[in-house]
Amino acid sequence: MRLDKFLCDMQLGTRSQVKESIKKGLVTVNGTPVRTPDFKLDERNDMVTYMGQALTYQNLYYYMLHKPAGVVTATRDNHESTVMDLLSDVRGKDLSPVGRLDKDTEGLLLITNDGELAHKLLSPGKHVAKTYYVECTGTLTEEKQVLLENGVDIGDNELTRPAEVKLISQSDCSYIMELTITEGRFHQIKRMVQAVGGCVTYLKRLSMGTLSLDANLPKGACRPLTEKEILDLKQLTKTVSAR
């Protein structure tokens, strides 16, 4: 890899800025100052320092965001605040959300520039499970719960895939449940609840595959995924398949 590309990937400046830093002798490779931007290095094994600070090469980044209501899940929008506006200070080029949550939906959102992992997590053939905390108006009878679990008609060409329902509480006119689905149709949770005579009043995603929302992460905040969380997600995409 070229030295200037290495530094750009590490977000130490634009291509012209890092070239200027290299020419000034601010960069060393294996202890030796290098002043040529096109110097070829082994990014995995050579030791690079910038202004005396050792750099460990990283070009793939993974973040957990606790999405708040009121922002859209997009990389950019001409009229609305986006989830990426909440990550303006984090490292990583070409970051984007994996999947989407509605503007009024809160909870777990994975942000990464690992396109391969994102594709696998969203692949219809993988059936990666996603669990939501759902507050609804209406009532959830045993019959309605069975319908949700076995598949309901939400106006598409086929019923929804089997789901898991955990009823948390219920009153005369409302109920709270955790709903786990393995697909991601447009407004799917809301449409499933409507199909059994209810209406979603609050929706929050709790997990996606092996990744669960950090209970200590405030709304609007993000943190890097741990190595274990990344490895678990990658392992998941190798093992889950169509059922």
Task: Describe the structure in your own words.
The structure is a single chain. This protein is an alpha+beta fold and 243 residues long. A hairpin with a 2-residue loop joins strand 11 (199-208) and strand 12 (211-212). The longest helix has 13 residues, at 227-239. The strands form two sheets. Strands 5, 6, 7, 8, 9, 10, 11, 12 and 13 form a nine-stranded mixed beta sheet that branches. The chain has a four-stranded antiparallel beta sheet with strand order 2-1-3-4, with no helix packed on it. It folds into three domains: 3-55, Structural Genomics Hypothetical 15.5 Kd Protein In mrcA-pckA Intergenic Region, Chain A (Roll), CATH 3.10.290.10; 62-124 and 214-239, Pseudouridine synthase I, catalytic domain, N-terminal subdomain (Alpha-Beta Plaits); 130-208, 2-Layer Sandwich (Alpha-Beta Plaits), CATH 3.30.70.1560. It has helices spanning 3-9, 15-23, 115-122, 142-150, 188-195, 227-239, and strands spanning 27-29, 32-33, 48-50, 53-55, 62-67, 96-97, 106-112, 130-137, 164-170, 174-181, 199-208, 211-212, 222-224.
> What count of helical segments does DSSP give?
6
Give the end-to-end Cα distance, rounded to a whole number of Å: 42 Å
> What's the number of domains?
3
Oligomer: single chain
Reading off the top of the CATH hierarchy, the class of the largest domain is best stated as Alpha Beta
- In the CATH hierarchy, the third-tier topology of the largest domain is known as Alpha-Beta Plaits
What is the assigned CATH homologous superfamily of the largest domain? Pseudouridine synthase I, catalytic domain, N-terminal subdomain
Approximately how much helix is present in the residues?
10-25%
Largest sheet: 9 strands, mixed
Structural class: alpha+beta
Write down the overall mean pLDDT: 94
In terms of DSSP E residues, the strand content is 25-35%
What is the count of β-strands?
13
Q: What Rg is obtained from the alpha carbons, in whole angstroms?
A: 23 Å
Question: Which word captures the global form?
Answer: elongated
- Indicate the low-confidence ranges by residue numbers: none
CATH architecture of the largest domain: 2-Layer Sandwich
